[in-house]
Structure formats: C-alpha cells, structure tokens
C-alpha cells in the first residue's frame, strides 16, 4: 500500500455491534476487557470504556489487515502497529486514526521510512532507505515528497543540497568517497 492512500479497512461503525463477550459497566455498556465479533467479520479483543474501544487492543480486519495498539474513544490513538494485507507495516504514533508523529513504515519491497508523519504522509524529518541498493535519503519531507535540505547517499558518493518535489533544486554538490566534489546549481526541467 502506498503510504498516501486511505487507510485499509476502516473499522466498522459501532451502531451494529455484533457479538460481544466481556466486562460491562452499570449501564450495560462494554467496559473493561472484552472480545467482539462484528457483523462484517472483523474482530476486536482488548479494552473498552463506556462502550468504546479505549486502551490497548487488537483489531483484526476481515481483509487480513490488523492493528495492535492504543485506542482512545474508538480511534487508533497513541502508539500502535498496523499490518497491511500487502505485507507492509506501520509502527508508530497515531492521532485519531491517522498516521501522525514519529513512526516507521516498512514497504512490501522492504524499503523503509523512519521519521515524522502528518496526515498519513511522510512529513518533517526522516530517513528513507532503499532495500535493494542500500541508498538513503536523509532530510526533510513535505506531503510525502523530498522537500528542503537533504542528503541522498549512495555507495560511493552522495548528493548534498536542497530538494523540491522529490528532485534536487538550487545549490548542491556531489561528494565522492575519494574526496572530490562537484558543486553546482540544479534546476528541474521537463522532458
């Protein structure tokens, strides 16, 4: 799954609650530890408070996706790990069902991004590692793209400079392992 796509398997609305085994409060609401099976086949096992998922728990989607982590008022909130059907995984902070804060995303091809997130996208400081080549981008991101100062490191050289919309833009330099440097001004051109 691309990290800028909508979340896989939104959790089912609690208006149709399905079956439940577990603790209840004096109002007969789900409260404490419980296990639920929803009408769509999803399951949840974990903490409830006043009828809502609240605390730690595991939500299993019928499409094989799975979330293990913290909930606040029925939403993924705090620390948690989301396992996607395509084999990718996000391990990090959530804010009201949105990847936001610090986290690590492992893609199906084993590329990884470790850093800051906002609105499900790479945003802020972070490091993207390409599994096949071991190349890395270390720098700033904006709305999922390389943006601002950064370093693109390869096996025998690196580019140090500014990026715009994923590409080098403005002053920058290539630095080679033997110490040589190539300084220049980089412009985005269309082909």
Percentage of residues in strands: over 45%
> What general outline do the C-alpha atoms trace?
elongated
Could you say what the CATH architecture of the largest domain is?
Answer: Single Sheet
Counting DSSP H or I runs of 4 or more residues, the number of helices is 0
CATH superfamily of the largest domain: Histone H3 K4-specific methyltransferase SET7/9 N-terminal domain
Placed side by side, the strands forming the largest sheet appear as 1-2-3-4-5-6-7-8-9-10-11-12-13-14-15
| Major sheet size, sense and barrel closure | 15 strands, antiparallel
Q: What is the straight-line distance between the termini? A: 29 Å
Radius of gyration: 22 Å
- Overall mean confidence score, pLDDT: 93
Our count of domains comes out at 2
Q: What structural class results from the helix and strand content?
A: mainly beta
- Give the % helix: under 10%
DSSP, total strands: 15
Biased composition (Basic and acidic residues): 21-32
GO cellular component, one term: nucleus
GO biological process, one term: spermatid development
Region (Disordered): 1-57
